Structures are given as structure tokens and as C-alpha cells.
Write a sequence for this structure.
């Protein structure tokens, strides 16, 4: 897991046992950014949601399969505004989750702020600078 500002962490695919361990460590919310059936043996979102319900933590499925859309960015922004923290967002590698976090926070932190944060977490997302600038009005 890699840490981003605001008590947010991003990770690759989580399994039920990992969600259980993270909830025991105090994680209050999970955001699944991976579409169902993307890879063999990948847990289904509904199964992970059932785990979260059993654990008493929040769970949202905001799948990103392909490009960014205004709906994805809006759903991510709402999630980061409203979910209890700490939050763990995950996808296959964490890259999509980091990108969605950046778009959800660019208006508050600025383009350099979000790109610096994701870079410090180990994700090189310079390729999204132009769309971030367009969204932030820079």
C-alpha cells in the first residue's frame, strides 16, 4: 500500500483476507476502482462488498475501464469527500486509483500538488498533467 495525503492509501487488488486485516487496523472505507472480470481469479465486487458489510466498513465500486470520464471523477470526488477515513482505494496495481485520487483533489491541491503526492507514493503520472490542468483551470 502507498500513502497519499488525507489519510488515503492506494493498493493493488485486495482479497477478502486483506480487507479483514486492514479493517482490524482501522481502515474505515474501501474504494474498488477495478471492473469485475478484468482478470481470471479476480474477486467480484459484490463479494468484496459483502466482506465490507460484514466488517462494518464502507465500500464503493467505482470501476475504471478505459479512459477517465466526468462521471468517474465526480463519483471519486464524492467518495473522498464523504467516506470515513482512513480510505483504501484499489485496482490492479494502484495506478488507476492514484489517478482518480489526483482528479478528485486537483481543485484543492493544484496540479503540481497532486502530481507531487502521487510521485512520492511511487506513481509516475505526468501523462495526466494536461487533463489535470484543464480540470483545475490552470
Amino acid at each position: 500500500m502507498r500513502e497519499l495525503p488525507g489519510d488515503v492509501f492506494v493498493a493493488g487488488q485486495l482479497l477478502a483476507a486483506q480487507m479483514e486485516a486492514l479493517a482490524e487496523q482501522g481502515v474505515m472505507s474501501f474504494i474498488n476502482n477495478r471492473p469485475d472480470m478484468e482478470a481470471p481469479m479476480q474477486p467480484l465486487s459484490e463479494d468484496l462488498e459483502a466482506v465490507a458489510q460484514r466488517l462494518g466498513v464502507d465500500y464503493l465500486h467505482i470501476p475504471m475501464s478505459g479512459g477517465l470520464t466526468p462521471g468517474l471523477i465526480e463519483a471519486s470526488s464524492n467518495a473522498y469527500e464523504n467516506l470515513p477515513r482512513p480510505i483504501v482505494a484499489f485496482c490492479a496495481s494502484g495506478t488507476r486509483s492514484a489517478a482518480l485520487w489526483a482528479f478528485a483533489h486537483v481543485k484543492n491541491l493544484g496540479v503540481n500538488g497532486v502530481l507531487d503526492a502521487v510521485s512520492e507514493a511511487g506513481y509516475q503520472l505526468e501523462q495526466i498533467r494536461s487533463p489535470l490542468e484543464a480540470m483545475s483551470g490552470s
The first strand starts at residue 2 and ends at 4. The mean pLDDT is 96.
